[in-house]
Amino acid sequence: MGLFQKKIINFFPRPFGLDLSDLSVKGVWIEEEGGKHVFRSYASVSFPNGAVMDGEIHDEEAVVNAIRKLSDQGKPGKIKTKKVVCSLPETKAFLRIITLPHMPESEVGEAIKWEIEANIPLAIDQVYYDWQVLSDELFYDQSKEKTFVLVVAVARGVVDTFYSVVERAGFEVVGMETEAVAQARSLLSSTENLKKTTLIVDIGDRRTSFFVCLGNVPCFTSSIPLSSQAITDAISKEMRISFEEAEKIKLSQGIGSFTDENPVFNAARPILDNLIAEMGRSIEFYLGNLRYSSQVDAIVLCGGGANMKGLIPYLTWKLGKTVTLGDPWVNVKMGESIPSIDRDRSVQYSTAIGLAIPNIEEYEYLA
């Protein structure tokens, strides 16, 4: 499902996924040959501080220049396509599952407009929106007289700015998707039990986002300002060392062991416990208010902060649930070939991989 898409038929080469976040832009290019996916290239270019903040672009020239550098820095080879599917920030998106009486799909589009105006805090002429009718099997117990529809809306100003900087960098935007939709595609198996409920926790440098998904459909999203960078700050203050020294310790040692008196863990613990409390609130809201499932079956981590040593054991112990590192290749069929990004690093590219997976044959402009 794409939010803002042009109709393209049989284009070649396929577009690459462009993840435009607060601190960097990441690209992944995957093509399809003979029924298999072929991994072509990946790259990451950092932004100057303040260029993008909380999903808003403040320095367009800096972002344009970073995107231009991306294709030339691709590994193992350059990104050779100019077509792009770009991410949109989850903090600026409104994602809802709405219910409608059973009706012909041709009538859903008009009904959606009324529901959007009732469910988001912006007027419909101020947003781009997209929708997808969900399978009855997903909500079997609740769908006897209802149609469930996934709706995503993003303010026009945000979409237009992202679109503009990518095009100014010399690329053609053929699709745009929110981070939740892209990550659900890359991290959640398309062949597993539709009723499995997963909490995806995306730990970034500036924020952490929570996506509760039923099957591989995001049903609820939220974000908080707690981040990997906040843990570095806490280590720096507690141990009275510079931020740079604290970052080196975090990268080499992680958060340390929670079974002994470790000064790094003691510094990080208040941040981690706040993170755990927010995870619990997201789960409670989903189960208590949305009630699409009776429990959360799995917790999956992704993002740059997901690889901290000691993090997964501590979260598993505190939550009493198995917490795992996400596998963004779960839906990529490469046969015996191996991508040139190792598992630990590739989880940082989960959004770009989800955008890049070539499963969209035809793009439509919706909204």
Describe the protein's architecture and organization.
This protein is of the alpha/beta class and 367 residues long. It folds into two domains: 1-188 and 331-367, Nucleotidyltransferase, domain 5, CATH 3.30.420; 191-327, Nucleotidyltransferase, domain 5. Helices cover 33% and strands 28% of the residues. It is built from ten helices and 16 strands. The chain has helices at residues 60-72, 105-119, 156-168, 179-187, 228-239, 243-253, 263-290, 311-319, 343-346, 350-356, and strands spanning 16-20, 24-33, 36-46, 52-53, 56-57, 75-76, 83-88, 93-101, 127-133, 146-155, 172-178, 197-203, 208-214, 217-224, 298-302, 323-325. It has a six-stranded mixed β-sheet with strand order 6-3-2-1-7-11. Strands 14-13-12-15-16 form a five-stranded mixed β-sheet, with helices on both faces. Strand 2 (24-33) and strand 3 form a beta hairpin. Helix 5 (228-239) packs antiparallel against helix 7. It is globular and about 65 Å long. Mean pLDDT is 88; it is low at 4-11 and 359-367.
